[in-house]
Sequence to fold (127 residues):
Amino acid sequence: QVQLVESGGGSVQAGGSLRLSCAASGCTTFSNLGMAWFRQVPGKVHAFVAGITWNGYNTYYADSVKGRFTISRDNAKNTVFLQMNSLKPEDTAVFYCAASANPVLVRYRAPGAYDFWGQGTQVTVSS
Fold:
């Protein structure tokens, strides 16, 4: 069983930056996992934000965050990151880290493709 713990959320003004971290534990080999970030606002389903394959060579982004957000991973530290720049009020959401047993993330946009989820961290962007 993989446990995922997010950190780094908070409140910022529009145009600001935040860096989210997700630490994984309980897994034999973190580098076997495809990783992603999703976000959710009240009344909506989880929305894909960014994904990264096991070796970090391939990354995927929602159109709404391309050029502003960067996903990365450190397999030596069992951690995945989401650097968020030029934040907008519409980025306000609970951000979730997710792990997939599929290391190449064939269906990276689908929440159902992920096997493990963190508890979420709130990001609030004020105008």
User: Anything to note?
Assistant: The mean pLDDT is 95.
